[in-house]
Amino acid sequence: MPTVGLDLGGTNIYAVVLEGEEVIGSTKRSTPNDGDVGDLVDELRKAAKKAAEDADLSLGDLDAVGVGSPGIVSDGTIDGGPNVRGVRERFPLASTLSEAVGTPVSVVNDVTAAAIGEQRLGAAQGAQASLTVFVGTGVGGGLVLDGQPYEGSFGGAGEFGHMIVRQGGAMCGCGRRGCVEAYAGRRAMEVAAERANAGGRRTRLFDIAAEKGKDRITSGVFRAALEEGDELLTALLSEAVEALAAGIASSVNLLDLEVVVLGGGLADKLGEPFRADLERVMAPLLFLQPPRMRLVRAALGDEGGAIGAAVVARERA
Ligand SMILES: [Zn+2]
């Protein structure tokens, strides 16, 4: 029986219909940003319906629906965090959406969903213990342990972006210092570049953004500046790689992971050279030598989170 997976992002909702190992339907819709949680649930229902229709099905044909949501997920409730506008306090997403779509709904953290998607159908297939790291606007993580998504005691497992890699280091968006995300998140690097630029440091980043008609330093701007050999960006990326390497190596040393999957908007744009650089910096930090774990690039692309959410729905239904 088919299940639908929904990936609730800050910009888009991705939806897929999964049957066996095949994605048989999909759709993408804009995440409503009016701050109304009722509209958000309605948009999720529409996304599930449209994806089902794309597979020549209706909502009634579905076994279950799974949702990957940013933030801390526990017992089907989500906290909004900065990525889900309108959700100020814990919101019972599973029960509310279940009533709207008429099937059981499972909710899991979005990167945990991507991690289980990659483990079942993507780059970490067959690995019993894996970590998926998403490097984009922020830095997220998801764990699969003993072949199952690991959500922790209180729903907070996998917050890879907030592993502290430098005590008293750079300020993170979470209000603490020295987190991986404070060095490797696209937004954090953008802020650091703005500060350096204001302080007179030369960089082409802002000119390239203007030439591309962008009002922010997108992942595409990063790549273009890197190809030009921009000195400031090269320095920032080197710090990002060091922070990621410390975080990943510490995770592997703690959990003896078999595979670490690298994905997310910025990592995808920077591609194989970024992965290889990270592997080179990380290798000496690993306790088990020679290293046996594999650092691989995500295989499922933009739909990975939705695919993982559909897997979770199927396995929990
Ligand atoms: Zn943090």
Quick check: average pLDDT? 94
Question: How many beta strands in the DSSP annotation?
Answer: 12
First and last CA, distance: 11 Å
Strands across the major sheet, in which order?
Answer: 3-2-1-4-7
Principal-axis shape = globular
Number of helices: 10
Number of discrete domains: 2
**What is the CATH architecture assignment of the largest domain?**
2-Layer Sandwich
- Structure class: alpha/beta
Hetero ligands: zinc ion
Rg over CA atoms, rounded to whole Å, is 19 Å
β-strand amount: 15-25%
Question: Helicity level, as a percent range?
Answer: 40-55%
The SSE string, one letter per element, is EEEHEEEHEHEEEHHHHHEHEH
Fold and architecture overview:
- This protein has a five-stranded mixed beta sheet. It has a five-stranded mixed beta sheet with strand order 10-9-8-11-12, with helices on both faces. A two-stranded antiparallel sheet has the order 5-6.
- The mean pLDDT is 94.
- It is of the alpha/beta class and 317 residues long.
- It is globular.
- The protein is built from ten helices and twelve strands.
- The chain has two domains: 3-117 and 303-316, 2-Layer Sandwich (Nucleotidyltransferase, domain 5), CATH 3.30.420; 127-298, 2-Layer Sandwich (Nucleotidyltransferase, domain 5), CATH 3.30.420.
- It is 40% helix and 20% strand.
- Bound molecules: zinc ion (ZN).
